[in-house]
Amino acid sequence: MNHFFARHLYLVDFTVASLGRRRGRNLGLFAVYVLLVFVLASVSLMTHGLRREAQAILESSPEIVVQRMIAGRNDPVPTGAVAAITGIRGVRAVQGRLWGYYYDAGMRANYTLMVPPDRPVESGAVVIGGGIARLRQLDTGDIVHFMAPDGRIVRFTVSGTLDSASELVSADLVLMNEGDFRAFFGFPADRFTDVVASVRNPREVGTVASKIALALPEARVVTRADMLRTYEALFDWRGGMVAVVLSGAVLAFVILAWDKAAGLSADERREIGVLKAIGWETSDVIAVKFWEGALVSLLAFLAGYVLAYGHVFYFSGALFEPALKGWAILYPRFRLVPEINGQQVATIFFFTVVPYTLATIFPIWRAATIDPDTVMR
Amino acid sequence: MNKHLRLSTTSLSVLAVALAAALATLVDAALRFDSEALARRNRAALAETLQLSDLSLFTEARYTRHPALADLHSAFQDHPAALDHFPSAAWMPPTRWHEKQP
Amino acid sequence: MLFHPTIMALLLWSAAAVAGVAVAAAYGWTILMEWNPASGSARQLVLERRTYLVSTLMAVVLWGEVLSLWLFVYNADAMAVMFVGAMCAVGSLNADPYGFPALIAKIALFFLAVVWLQVNRADNQGWDYPLVRVKYALLLILVPAVVLSAGLQYAYFSGLRADVLTSCCSKLFEVDREGVGADMSSLAPMPALVLLYGGLGLTLLLSVWTWRRPVLSAALAPVAAAVFVAVMVSVVSVVSTYVYAQPQHHCPFCLLKPEYGYVGYALYLPLFVGTALAVSSWPVHHFRRAASLAQAAPAMTRSMAWVAAACYVAVAVVCTWIIAASELYYFR
Amino acid sequence: MTDTVLISLKKVSKIHNEGRPNEVQAVVGIDLDIARGKVTVLRGASGSGKTTLLTVIGCLARPSSGRVALDGRDISGMPERFLTRIRQETFGFVFQGFNLLRGMSALDNIMLPAYPQAPPHRWLRRRALDLLSMLRLEHRADTPVEMLSGGEAQRTAIARALVNDPPILIADEPTANLDTALTREFLGIAETLKAQGKTLILTSHDPRVFEAGMVDHVVTLRDGRVEERR
């Protein structure tokens, strides 16, 4: 065993010396490698962070949401539905919700207007999310004007802003009083946007949901678990898409690695010939070449990963902001909770180090089996 | 006596430092987790009281704001080039009608 | 459900493994057909050099397979949330009929690859390559195993359908399907513990004997393979319930989670290594008949038996510690 | 008498590029014994097959046919893996162009052949420094080899060949690029090594070498066959 380690230490000595002699080329490969790992790891850490964030919110979201469908389109739910659902066994609490979207033509941004179920908002006042406060430079006590769908300009006083640490869920919220909401949108008095229900026994959610579906045949019943699964699948699918898009980059990188390993200069071939002539065995040469790849790829992997960690958790994935923002004007400021997941790290490893290793096996073998007598010819 | 540092020693030390940095991210994550997770719990609490179900990350269109409760899952609702959030929509580009206008 | 980063990584890897083993087998075939150690011809030299490529490829395939086995289980656990009723990896694996066969094929492949690499290591110690034919014939058996494992994995992943909300949904998954819980068929605690300690004791005894008399590896190998299954059954039936302190929770995968202190790694690592070495000790010892390996083969067998014995002790210690530290009592 | 024969060649032939249009019969049916502790020179014009013969003797290549025995052990059919091991223990090579690895110091070059056996690093370094001082090169230990003069490069190559302490030293055209003074110096080193009990095998068509007093045997080759032995 000692001999094993001692031999590999010697081989590493030689590997590093020979990497150093071709510094330019190896640094180039190293830089590309770091960049690739950095991008893949950033995407992966970011999607995972957002996914966990979405999960955390969903876990505290209503257990059942009931929407009404007419011709496949959403329609406000009659207030009578609340009573109908309350009558179903196993239901703990039912509440009609009022919420909707408002397009701010001046800012070209979408807001979410909502009547908070838990806190009273005075008539003529609004509580706004951190994103809107920043976008329109509003603070408590300021006046804000919204244009109602019928053309009226409605004036509100900002009575408060939501905690800036919660921007990830509340950046675009405008909370107002029920009367103001109905008056602003001209929302019928006997309707709600949708209805939420909570269930006494969490195990019964499915049963209760099917009873609601039976009682209100036109309703679309969405359970929390459905949302959770859909989110999960959606994030995975998006991650998969990104991986497919980036696989082009991975492929280009693999070609680069292959080319580097296969395109031995006459000098390098002579060097391997000399090593074999002075008593190195083919497996020694393979081991040296293996170390070459291992040192470069491990170092690049670790460096790319650490950089990605800093990027995502200290700079909130600043480089991805344009992509996530899209055409949106409102973009929340957020700090993701740092969580590292072995599966992600292993997946990135599989996408980078493994193809690199595979791409270099054959060229390495070709190089290592050079005739030892080449140096004499 | 042996003042010559072996290359294997230096290079494996560099590797060890990189590994330590990678492990340090785990420690950093654990250290920051408590404070950040508190913020997350606050967010979740707000979401609970307001009965929210989605992140306010994608506000470009109505249906991207609340994917879990979208009123209708189809493209072109707010912008002719707005991407649907469903997998299949990513494959089919929107019609580029605006380029044909004079 | 193929558009998932980890699934794509696993599929990509299995495709690469098939390609790698196919290349190795193609070269192995030429070696098998044309090998002639008596000849000093250039062709023989070419064949000799191909052996290096084949063993390098096989080593990479083995290590990739180890990593991919781990990622496969990890991923199954992470995916559980997407399937109605699935609580952990067992539920994900049950979500499609090919789930468990794919896992079993991956485990079998791991053992086959270890056996091949150990035979290869033995062969490389004889100056006349005495095992070349056996070795490359074995390699040809590995090809269908790799292809089968890749095929099962593909069938599993492509058959998976996440239960998601789509625009038509008033459909409720909750009532459509029966929950695929984490329940697995299991033995009662007493017979399971007897099986566990009896099996571990038997293999430990046999590996110590093999260490003293390498010829006994012929008995050790099949017993170790059977005991591996027995240990897994008792882990599912009883050891896991001690870890979770819940007599109803029988998942062999949740042991790997941080909630349970990663105790699964401490259990599975020595179990897999020990079984792999015990199983390959026999074919290696079998080759003592070659004159050039008369010394080396038994020496290798003995060192393998020694390490295997240490591994079985470790498994027994970990199991005992789990049971002793548990809040669950079956017997008072 | 057999105990004085170190390497014995029986009907050795070597064909390059076998089976291809550019097939060359480099060496044809050679019988040759190399004596232990002596200096043997293979002499011949370029293309006479002496370098090829040297590769077969030095276990760098296997003969296409015939038998090679080292110390009475047949090594002609050995796989490369084991041939390398034997080469490592038995032979030290000084190549015609020296073939030092550029970009590495003289000391590192000298230590290279011992890497696979992995002796203790401190010991190996000491041994390489000792060899350098024996060859009066200690002041050049840390110099990159491309900065060495021709004579210094050759002495570095000799030190590299000796680092594993092989019983046989093989040198291919050792004096090809050297002036008379350096040639004399090389012959001096060779004589010292012979006195230490090493077997030396040289190729040369330089009369200064094969007419030197310490040379015991001269084998003249022509067209891959032995023309004359002395």
TrEMBL record, chain A:
Pfam family of the protein (one): FtsX
Transmembrane segments: 27-46, 237-258, 298-324, 345-365
Domain ABC3 transporter permease C-terminal, chain residue ranges per copy: 266-372
UniProt superkingdom: Bacteria
Annotated Gene Ontology cellular component terms: plasma membrane protein complex
GO biological process: lipoprotein localization to outer membrane
Family annotation (InterPro entries): ABC3_permease_C (IPR003838), Lipoprotein-release_system (IPR051447)
Cellular location(s): Cell membrane
Membrane association type: Multi-pass membrane protein
Alphabetic keyword roster: Cell membrane, Membrane, Transmembrane, Transmembrane helix
Classification via PANTHER family: LIPOPROTEIN-RELEASING SYSTEM TRANSMEMBRANE PROTEIN LOLE
Family (UniProt): Belongs to the ABC-4 integral membrane protein family. LolC/E subfamily.
Entry protein name: FtsX-like permease family protein
Protein species of origin: Magnetospirillum aberrantis SpK
From TrEMBL, chain B:
Protein name as annotated: Uncharacterized protein
UniProtKB/TrEMBL annotation, chain C:
Transmembrane segments: 52-73, 100-117, 137-157, 192-211, 223-245, 265-284, 305-324
Keyword Membrane: yes
Protein keywords: Membrane, Signal, Transmembrane, Transmembrane helix
Source species, domain of life: Bacteria
Signal peptide from the UniProt entry: 1-19
Name of the protein described by the UniProt record: Uncharacterized protein
From TrEMBL, chain D:
GO molecular function, one term: ATP binding
GO cellular component: a single term: plasma membrane
Domain ABC transporter: 7-230
Keyword field: ATP-binding, Nucleotide-binding, Transport
Membrane-spanning parts: none
InterPro entries per UniProt: AAA+_ATPase, ABC_transporter-like_ATP-bd, ABC_transpr_LolD-like, MacB-like_ATP-bd, P-loop_NTPase
Keyword Chaperone: no
Gene3D superfamilies: P-loop containing nucleotide triphosphate hydrolases (3.40.50.300)
Protein name: ABC transporter ATP-binding protein
Species of origin: Magnetospirillum aberrantis SpK
